[in-house]
Amino acid sequence: MALGGYANRIAHIDLTKGEVDYQPIPEDWARKYIGARGLGVRYVFENGPQVEPLSPDNILCFMNGPLTGTDANMSGRMAVVTKSPLTGTIMDSHHGGWSAARLRWSGFDGLIFKGRADKPVYAYVQDGKVELHDASELWGKGVHDTVKFFKDKYGEKDLTVIAIGQGGENLSPFGNWINENDRASGRGGTGCVGGSKKLKAIVVKAEKAIPKAKDREAWKDAHARALKCIMDEANVTSPRKGGLSVYGTNVLMNIANDMGALPTRNSQLVTFGDKGEKVSGEWVKENILVEDPTCHACPVACKKEVEIKDGPFAGLRMESLEYEPAWSFGANCENDYAPSLAKLIDLCNDYGLDAIEMGDVLAMYMEATEKGYLNGYEGLQWGDYMGMVELIPKIALREGVGDILAGGTEAAAKHFGHPEIAMTVKGMGIPAYDPRGLKGMGLGYATSNRGACHLRGYSPASELGLIPLKTDPLEWKGKGELLKLLQDLFAFMDSLDLCKFSSFAEGAEEFAAQYSVMVGIPFTADDVLKTGERIYNLERHYNNLVGFGQGSDYLPKRFLEEPSTQLASKGHVCELDKMLEEYYQLRGWENGVVPESKLKELEVF
Q1: Fewest CB atoms within 10 A around its CB: which of 260, 302, 457, 520?
Q2: What is the pLDDT of residues 328-378, one digit of tens each?
């Protein structure tokens, strides 16, 4: 392949046969879909949209982009791409740390697994080769013990471990992949797909070997320009000065809480009131923060490692109280005891379960308890953090009511006969933003190609004033244009694969410049957005072929019919239908369906 930046090597691993085939990337695919998310989606599409998520025929892709493992700022992301057992949609879920960089340094752009092993296995990756080994002795162990096993076996230096826990093994559709730094490809059940294939872990051993740009002199300028944006003290990314660097992602807790946009008590309320401060990034920094670890090539260091000094969870040291899970187990469950959030998140990381979905499951269960919907089950009271701690292992191991809750928020709510208390879209639970107080996020949840998600097009960056393009959080007009722009931009970023937080400082011009000189072809900001649009439309087309058509872009009725009663959002609902009309017109879609003319216009095939 003529393009720079790529190893041009994909390992196709047939778990049924125990065979590995090494293939180059089709250059046309690389040019159109870049890498990571985009390229992974293209491989999944080629495998067929009618495949059952947990069948041996589904593929599971671990993908890098052309900037992965380079000097590019915040280029330590890996995309795990498959068809989701939770939503039935296309699914890509990303994680940080060092695993993506080490996979690239080992000589690969991606690993694609198909089939099902007859016994548990792990893949060992080193020096451009992949070997399958017996993992039977690890089956039934948590992620943390699995990581320790491989560190003891292969040595900690230059080692990455990406593993599933009991959640994935027991086929919870929100089982996920966790690496040695507790960084999660959290959403959509990618770990459940791994469990169905009897794939316990991927182990990568690779010394640092930074890939070089096609145009090395021009790279220096492009990289310096991007770094200047990240370091700018006016930006939230500014190391040791910007809010993201100082407080981590949980800097958002007080902001969302104070404006009436923090879903509380399973979205029955929009603020946690005075209790919000007790689970905020500011409280964490003041009371339990011990270290600021970071990912490959990242000066921001948004991770906040904590240690609990007293109380029932004394001695726990973990990474970290991210905003989303701190919300999901906090305000969402009316729990203001921060040390318990650390424990709950750590349990999810060890069992390999999505902490956002887990919090949504528990909050739904609490509301079902409150309203008497459980038909004999004991239930769980609001704020009962010890009960939550006791329930997570039962969910991971599918014991008692845990077997029902392990199916996810929507499935469990239906089991209790009240689907209306599931705050989900396309089967996936919402993250930490209430659409009555952040209208753009409501449109984002509805039109995300992977179910309720804030990361397809992060409109709060605009609605909370984190970027120069600022919009009114309570105004629905113009949000169709905002979401299309951000969704297309993020689809391209996810394909490079760069951390979303780079977009808080950099823009399409910086991304285009870095990609252009890395691979060695002319590329503009307009090309960035067109490529992102192509990727987003391919994902949507895949979902359309699965059966997601008109009416599939929706929100829970609570956000549409029950007005906020608090703070700035008081009296507001989310005007989804109006935003959808604007959005579909801009997308050129017919009631959520991509027409053939749009596929041709974007040269999808």
Answers
A1: 520
A2: 999 999 999 999 999 999 999 999 999 999 999 999 999 999 999 998 899
Cβ-contact 116, 167 below 8 angstroms = no
Amino acid residing at 236? V
Q: Model-level pTM? A: 0.98
Q: Are 426 and 552 in contact (CB under 8 A)?
A: yes
Q: Is the separation of the CB atoms in 473 and 466 below 8 Å?
A: no
Which residue reads 């970290």 in tokens?
A: 320
Please state, in angstroms and rounded to a whole number, the distance separating the CA atoms of residues 246 and 273: 23
**What is the token pair recorded at 255?**
């902001």
Mean pLDDT of 532-550: 98
C-beta contacts of 597-604 below 8 A and 24+ residues apart: 598/537, 599/537, 599/541, 602/530, 602/533, 602/534, 602/537, 603/32, 603/534, 604/32, 604/534, 604/537, 604/538, 604/541
Instruction: Give the integer Cα–Cα distance in Å for 313 and 344.
Output: 10
pLDDT category, 458, cuts 50, 70, 90?
A: very high
Per-residue pLDDT tens digits for 502-516? 999 999 999 999 999
Cβ contact 328:340 at 8 Å: no
The gap from C-alpha 280 to its chain's centroid, in whole angstroms, comes to: 21
- Residue 35 DSSP code: S
Of 148, 195, 145, 147, residue with least CA distance to 167: 195
> CB–CB of 21/9 below 8 Å?
no
